[in-house]
Write a structure and sequence with these properties.
This protein is of the alpha+beta class. It is built from 2 helices and 9 strands, in the order E-H-E-E-E-E-E-H-E-E-E. The strands form 2 sheets. Strands 1, 2, 3, 4 and 5 form a 5-stranded mixed β-sheet that branches. The protein has a 4-stranded mixed β-sheet with strand order 6-9-8-7, with helices on one face. Strand 4 and strand 5 form a beta hairpin. It is globular, with a radius of gyration of 15 Å. The two termini are 24 Å apart. 16% of the residues are buried.
C-alpha cells in the first residue's frame, strides 16, 4: 500500500504549478479542463513518492487557513541533506516566502524548516 497522490484546491493554478516546478523539481502533465464544471487540474510528479494534484474551479470557497486547525496541515518534501534544507529555505525566504519555523532539529530529531507557500499552504522541508 502507498499513497498515490494528494489533491489541493488552489486559486492561482499556474502560479502554484510554477512554484512546485521551480523549487521542488516537479514535472507537470498537460492541464485537464472539464468544460462542464470549469475544473482545471495538473498532476505534478516528483523524483520519487506520491504525486500532487493541483486543482481549481470557479465555484470554490476560500476559507482562512489557520495553522492549528484540524485536517491536512502541510506537505513535506525530503531534500536529502541539512545543507539542502538550509539552501532551499534561504532561497524561498529570499524570494519572498515566509519561513514559519527553522531550519532546526525538532524534538523528535528531524532537521526541517516550514515555509508558507502560495496561498498560505504550509510546506515542510526535511533532510
Amino acid at each position: 500500500m502507498r499513497i498515490d497522490h494528494i489533491a489541493l484546491y488552489v486559486n492561482e493554478l499556474e502560479e502554484v504549478k510554477a512554484f512546485f516546478v521551480r523549487y521542488f523539481g516537479a514535472v507537470s502533465n498537460e492541464m485537464y479542463h472539464n468544460l462542464r464544471t470549469g475544473l482545471r487540474t495538473y498532476i505534478l510528479s516528483f523524483g520519487d513518492g506520491a504525486r500532487l494534484e493541483i486543482m481549481s474551479r470557479p465555484d470554490m470557497k476560500d476559507e482562512p487557513k489557520d495553522m492549528f486547525r484540524t485536517g491536512y496541515i502541510h506537505l513535506s518534501f525530503a531534500v536529502g541533506s541539512q545543507s539542502e534544507v538550509d539552501r532551499l529555505t534561504g532561497l524561498l525566504y529570499d524570494n519572498g516566502y515566509r519561513v514559519v519555523s527553522g531550519p532546526r532539529i525538532t524534538g523528535d530529531g528531524y532537521y526541517e524548516s516550514c515555509i508558507e507557500g502560495p496561498e498560505g499552504n504550509l510546506i515542510e522541508i526535511t533532510e
